[in-house]
Amino acid sequence: MKADTLKDGKGTTITFADHANLFLRIDPTSITPPGMEGGDPIDTTSLSNTSYRTKYPQSLMEMTNGSFTAAYDPDAMEDAYAAINDNNLITFTFPDGMAVAVWGYLKTFTPGEVVVGEQPTAECEIVITLENASSVETAPDWEAGSA
After folding, report:
1. Which phi and psi (to 5°) does residue 137 adopt?
2. Separation between Cα atoms, residue 145 and residue 138, nearest integer Å
3. What beta strand segments (E) does the chain contain?
4. Which of 26, 88, 111, 122 is most buried by a 10 A CB count?
């Protein structure tokens, strides 16, 4: 039986534990959750190899950055700038209730061009640190949805 898949991204949210006011004043129009990466392979080729170069996977994984585009009120810029480089717990929640909480920080809040007749938006990047407020390595916390 095929697993359920997300049919529509509507309702996906991001929350910053220490910056709740930020998301009262901006409204994401698209969200890219963080991914996972294993890193480049370790070259294990030696002079004893006879036909092929050999490789081995790294032991550590890395979460890739997340991002979002948001409509915003210019009053929100102060809240956004206060979140820059502030490592805190960030939760990505999907419409089915599945969520992942990770430690990270807002790296960029870059307002786009303001144009008559168009909603102002900003491009934002989130760096995933996986290091909590006590500087301890902290794995992503996955919570099951209602599916």
Report:
1. -55, 130
2. 21
3. 13-16, 26-32, 36-37, 42-43, 55-56, 62-63, 66-72, 88-93, 99-111, 121-128, 141-143
4. 26
Instruction: Please tell me what DSSP assigns to residue 73.
Output: -
Length of the chain: 147
Q: State whether residue 140 is helix, strand or coil.
A: coil
Q: How far, rounded to the nearest angstrom, does the alpha carbon of residue 129 sit from its chain's CA centroid? A: 10
Alpha-carbon Rg for the chain, nearest whole angstrom, is 19
The number of angstroms, rounded, from the C-alpha of 12 to the middle of its chain's C-alpha atoms is 12
Q: What is the mean pLDDT of residues 89-113?
A: 96
Of 86, 60, 90, 80, residue with least CA distance to 121: 80
Say how far apart CA 32 and CA 69 lie, in whole Å: 9
Closest CA to 16 of 95, 64, 73, 76: 76
In contact, 115 and 66? CB cutoff 8 Å: no
- Residue 127: CB atoms within 10 Å: 18
Residue 91 token pair: 């939760």
Instruction: Give mean pLDDT, residues 136-141.
Output: 98
Identify residue 53 by its one-letter amino acid code: R
| CB distance 33 to 48 below 8 Å | no
Comparing 131 with 2, which gets the higher pLDDT?
131
